[in-house]
């Protein structure tokens, strides 16, 4: 698959999140449980989701990634336990869209890293994945994930 890579940004956006350090094979179960908890918390607060769910990977090269599962919201809300709320934004990032099963997303990361290196940029070490459709209602071949690699 070929990828179109470009410079992007993410405007300031409040989001609620749960941060976890878990084994890579447990990611699907943790994502499902964390997003369900975040949705339930928003139902309690009466706040609305304002965009697609996303994840922030703080350490993708580890066998036990440090990841935040996140939902954007329309305004800041108080946290509760391990659920926090903070403003996210990216001033400058490389981005691309992966279409297909999440298990095949590595090719998008490779293309993005090659584009970053080939254009003289340096990544910060974090990556963001925005999930544009629901794996429960979308075939795996049609899933779309936007990748953002923040740059120094």
Write up this protein.
By secondary structure, the chain is α+β, with helices and mostly antiparallel strands. The chain has one domain: Multidrug-efflux Transporter 1 Regulator Bmrr, Chain A (Alpha-Beta Barrel). The protein contains two helices and six strands, in the order βαβββαββ. The chain has a six-stranded antiparallel barrel with strand order 1-3-2-5-6-4. The longest helix is centred in the N-terminal third of the chain and has 19 residues. The radius of gyration is 15 Å and the shape is globular. The model has no long low-confidence stretch (mean pLDDT 92).
In short:
The protein is of the alpha+beta class. A 6-stranded antiparallel β-barrel has the order 1-3-2-5-6-4.
List the helices and strands and how they pair.
Elements: E1 6-21, H1 27-45, E2 54-59, E3 66-72, E4 83-99, H2 106-118, E5 127-131, E6 144-150
- Contiguous helical run count: 2
SSE ordering: EHEEEHEE
The CATH H-level superfamily is Regulatory factor, effector binding domain
Unreliable stretches (pLDDT < 50, length at least 5) are: none
Largest sheet: 6 strands, antiparallel, barrel
What CATH architecture label applies?
Alpha-Beta Barrel
Class inferred from helices and paired strands: alpha+beta
Number of strands: 6
- Cα shape: globular
CATH class membership: Alpha Beta
Distance between the termini: 27 Å
Quickly count the domains: 1
Strands across the major sheet, in which order?
Answer: 1-3-2-5-6-4
**CATH fold label:** Multidrug-efflux Transporter 1 Regulator Bmrr, Chain A
Task: Compute the CA-based radius of gyration.
Answer: 15 Å
**What is the residue-averaged pLDDT?**
92
Q: Helical proportion?
A: 10-25%
> What oligomeric state do these chains adopt?
single chain
The fraction of residues in strands falls at: 35-45%
